[in-house]
């Protein structure tokens, strides 16, 4: 079977969608399929990084798209990069041979529409893997006016492609509900979260100690936010809490990753002269165990307006490691669902957006308890979201969609 995977990011990029799509491509190759990936030739978080235009890697045929790499400093820069990706992806997809199934992620926005157009011309199934919903996300972030001409046009295009999909992968029940509200038939929606990287990420005491020593946080109680820093995961309340807790000498905040809001965190720490904040870039996969294991309390943040639009996929690695987490977000959300399922308030803490005193209190309580041993209950829950469970299941869903088409 010929499988086409389309997304802005792929190996060796470190962002979450690149890692998950790389895992899926490997699984498809191991299942005996021919896999072609169309992705960007530039790094997602650092456009100065360039990757080969054409590459054969571990049995995967990779075709990479040129974009100007203007970055995320302004909306017009993003728009130009997205438009360049769209245009060059169209050229590549039209000249590629027919594929039995095309799996489209959602970066850049509405790329599944292009996959749908090509599949309708050449044949084959289309399976959107909805990592985030646009233009819904743009409206929630205030980048687009709800009900405006642009928003209505983009929503029409999005819904047109979704309603013609053979299957759609939603990440949680809230996202599935949004898709159903858009007119997608419930039987077309398959709901499964993105898996943890449990094959590569394990709790590692030696790597934890080495990472802490390398970054000068040995002996500290480390509160970590690791992953994409974006408006979907508003960090203002967490930063305000860090400012209020600056007198706690034992406590240190570690922000790891990138994204449009990463520089905002750095700027806040500089402007407030906060010695209790350290910012680090995305860590490569081989260092991820040490990086994530170095935390005593992980932060998972979800903006109220983004429930069902984006998904807190970082939480699965945290559960796999068995480290306590604090979810900051609405009660009706996937993060709160998992905290309730965990059933251990000291391991799955919850606070609400806007409640800075509540966030401070939860962190202080965690510090008072000190570094906790690995929690078996968290690991048991995390096992439901392991690579070995979810990745093969997604392969089956894609194979079934191709067979029906």
From TrEMBL:
Entry superkingdom: Bacteria
Keywords: Transferase
Gene Ontology MF term list: glycosyltransferase activity
Segments forming domain Glycosyltransferase subfamily 4-like N-terminal: 18-190
Keyword set includes Disulfide bond: no
Coiled-coil features, chain-numbered ranges: none
Signal peptide from the UniProt entry: none
InterPro entries assigned to the protein according to its UniProt record, in alphabetical order: Glyco_trans_4-like_N
One Pfam family from the record: Glyco_trans_4_4
Protein's name in the database: Glycosyltransferase involved in cell wall biosynthesis
């Amino acid at each position: 079977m010929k499988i086409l995977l389309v997304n802005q990011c792929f190996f060796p990029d470190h962002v979450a969608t690149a890692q998950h799509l790389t895992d899926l491509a490997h699984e498809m190759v191991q299942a005996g399929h021919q896999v072609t990936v169309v992705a960007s030739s530039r790094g997602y978080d650092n456009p100065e990084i360039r990757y080969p235009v054409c590459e054969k890697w571990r049995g995967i045929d990779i075709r990479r798209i040129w974009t100007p790499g203007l970055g995320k400093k302004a909306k017009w820069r993003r728009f130009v990069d997205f438009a360049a990706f769209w245009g060059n992806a169209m050229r590549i997809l039209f000249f590629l041979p027919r594929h039995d199934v095309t799996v489209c992620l959602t970066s850049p926005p509405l790329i599944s529409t292009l996959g749908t157009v090509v599949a309708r011309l050449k044949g084959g199934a289309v399976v959107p893997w909805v990592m985030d919903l646009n233009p819904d996300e743009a409206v929630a972030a205030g980048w687009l006016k709800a009900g405006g001409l642009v928003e209505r046009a983009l929503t029409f295009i999005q819904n047109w492609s979704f309603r013609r999909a053979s299957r759609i992968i939603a990440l949680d029940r809230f996202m599935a509900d949004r898709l159903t509200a858009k007119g997608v038939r419930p039987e077309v929606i398959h709901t499964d979260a993105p898996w943890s990287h449990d094959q590569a990420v394990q709790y590692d005491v030696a790597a934890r100690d080495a990472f802490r020593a390398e970054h000068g946080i040995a002996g500290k109680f480390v509160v970590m936010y690791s992953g994409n820093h974006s408006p979907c995961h508003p960090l203002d309340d967490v930063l305000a809490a860090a400012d209020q807790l600056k007198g706690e000498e034992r406590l240190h905040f570690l922000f790891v990753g990138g994204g449009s809001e990463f520089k905002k965190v750095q700027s806040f720490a500089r402007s407030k002269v906060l010695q209790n904040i350290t910012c680090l870039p995305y860590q490569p996969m081989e260092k991820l165990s040490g990086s994530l294991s170095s935390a005593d309390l992980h932060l998972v943040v979800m903006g109220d307006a983004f429930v069902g639009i984006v998904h807190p996929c970082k939480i699965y690695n945290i559960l796999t490691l068995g480290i306590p987490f604090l979810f900051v977000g609405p009660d009706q959300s996937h993060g709160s669902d998992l905290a309730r399922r965990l059933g251990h308030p000291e391991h799955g803490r919850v606070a609400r957006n806007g409640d800075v005193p509540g966030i401070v209190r939860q962190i202080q309580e965690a510090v008072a308890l000190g570094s906790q041993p690995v929690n078996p209950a968290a690991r048991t829950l995390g096992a439901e979201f392991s690579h070995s469970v979810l990745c093969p299941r997604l392969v089956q869903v894609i194979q079934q969609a191709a067979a029906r088409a």
